[in-house]
Amino acid sequence: DVFHSSIKDNKMGGLLQPDNFYKIEPFTGNAKDRKLIKLANFLQYVNQFSDIKPIKSYKKKYDQREIRLR
Fold first, then answer.
1. Residue 5 · residue 22 · CB < 8 Å
2. CA atoms in the 13 A half-sphere facing the CB of 23
3. How far apart (Å, rounded) are the C-alpha atoms in residues 27 and 36?
4. DSSP label at 27?
5. By C-alpha distance, which of 62, 56, 15 is closest to 40?
6. pLDDT tens for each residue of 5-60
7. What 8-state DSSP symbol labels residue 70?
8. From CA 31, how far away is CA 24, in angstroms rounded?
9. Which of 32, 45, 56, 65 has the fewest beta carbons under 10 Å from its own?
């Protein structure tokens, strides 16, 4: 489940479990920053699954899906 995966804005967070790590860039104050919106959309996508480990594979599937929708 989502609570056993990790969402971090630092490189060190994924060292122990890189397959269950979702890295986002830190917020820098830019009003046009949409990273949290993208993260929220991803979390809505994975909410349909009972187990999202390894999160890395779900992130890849989600990214491919987003590319096809553009």
1. yes
2. 10
3. 9
4. P
5. 62
6. 556 666 666 777 788 888 777 888 899 998 888 889 998 999 998 888 888 888 88
7. -
8. 16
9. 32
